[in-house]
Amino acid sequence: MNSLAGSRNDARHVAIKSFAYHVPERVVSNQELAGSLDTSDEWIVSHTGIRQRHIAARDQASSDLACRAARQVLQNSDVAAEEIDLIVLATATPDYNGFPSTACVLQDMLGCRNAVAFDITAACSGFIYGLEIARSMMIAGPDYNKALVVGAEVFSKIINWQDRSTCVLFGDGAGVALLSRDSSATLVLDSLLKSDGKGAEKLWVPEGGSRAPFCPGRSQAMAPRKYVEMDGRAVYNFAVAANQEILNEILERNGLTVADLRYIVPHQANLRIIQAIAKREKIPMEMFFTNIDRYANTSAASIPIALAELAASGDLRAGDLILCLGFGAGLTYAGVLLQWGKSSQ
Ligand code: ACO
């Protein structure tokens, strides 16, 4: 069954012209972590599918990674920085706490002097949230014609490297999509965003915000909760159910079945989560694009990095349908249905 006649946004399509990504040079293998932590390559691979991750240098922030990816996407699409009129940047690891936004820092780095720039926070669902915000702004009015949607993260700076239950899971990176009104590029056919704030404490950084600010003079030992804390089992259960819900709802409301999709691009948090969705929904694993073995969980950057790799693989044909599925802290979850375009890169 392939009936996109009922697709929810036929009227004013917004298209993705190009994807690009950047990851830091330094690769940290599981074996390297096992040298300083009570863990092993065997445990990490068997519980998560992760073999290595890229880790930012001491002086690299989210905007530095985003800038490298964004320069690439501009070059791919032959678009000048001044032509960009909107930058939406999703991150849970902004350059600065509160303000200025990382999007504004990026705007200046790129020379996008005509762009409105702002950050959004939706953790690992952030890229899909950002895509929908940018798309809605482009559909709503004539002011926005070319947008950068960015997912950029340096989780290595907010994880406790002594906590084996979290530090092995994350990596750093950035991915960017350039949106335009080119109808021969990749169409954003449908998006579905959801939130469940009841699960906020299942995955969080408890201290450092206005609820529990850092106090001058307070020692590190007295403020140990400035790192990511997670109830891994609860997040796992949420993730599997959330992905199933989004998958089925998007397919149903677009009159599609899984067989109509070329690829499912899930948030790369844990291979076992992806395998559980595949098993429950009876979907062959080959339909899921995965690269978690090389990058680990790069949060808001994971889906655009995956899409950029998929685009570069040459494996996609015009008309192919791709469903992206995201979930993350908040709790948030989301999906976006894309139709690959002949002029996309
Ligand atoms: N190396 C060795 N042993 C470990 C490690 C490690 N790195 N981490 C935990 N263990 C141990 C635990 O201490 C525990 O030992 P115990 O039985 O002696 O107490 C044992 O392994 C089993 O621990 P569990 O937590 O039950 O392991 P589980 O099989 O549930 O896997 C995991 C843990 C991988 C974290 C899993 O729960 C998971 O993937 N959860 C979802 C995580 C996720 O997706 N997070 C990102 C969300 S996205 C975002 O918004 C940032």
What does this structure look like?
- The longest helix has 22 residues, at 232-253.
- The chain has a single domain (1-345), classed as Peroxisomal Thiolase, Chain A, domain 1.
- The protein has helices at 30-34, 41-48, 62-77, 102-110, 126-140, 164-167, 232-253, 271-281, 292-295, 302-313; strands spanning 15-22, 27-29, 52-54, 86-90, 116-120, 147-154, 172-180, 186-195, 203-204, 229-230, 263-266, 321-328, 332-339.
- Helix 4 links the parallel strand 4 and strand 5 (116-120).
- With 345 residues, it is an alpha+beta fold.
- Helix 3 (62-77) packs across helix 4.
- The strands form 3 sheets. It has a 9-stranded mixed β-sheet with strand order 5-4-6-7-1-8-13-12-11, with helices on both faces. The protein has a two-stranded antiparallel ribbon with strand order 2-3.
- The site of acetyl coenzyme *A (ACO) has 24 residues, from helix 2, helix 6 and helix 7.
- It catalyses: malonyl-[ACP] + acetyl-CoA + H(+) = 3-oxobutanoyl-[ACP] + CO2 + CoA.
- Keywords: Acyltransferase, Cytoplasm, Fatty acid biosynthesis, Fatty acid metabolism, Lipid biosynthesis, Lipid metabolism, Multifunctional enzyme, Transferase.
- GO terms for molecular function: beta-ketoacyl-acyl-carrier-protein synthase III activity.
- Residues 118-197 form the Beta-ketoacyl-[acyl-carrier-protein] synthase III N-terminal domain.
- This is Beta-ketoacyl-[acyl-carrier-protein] synthase III.
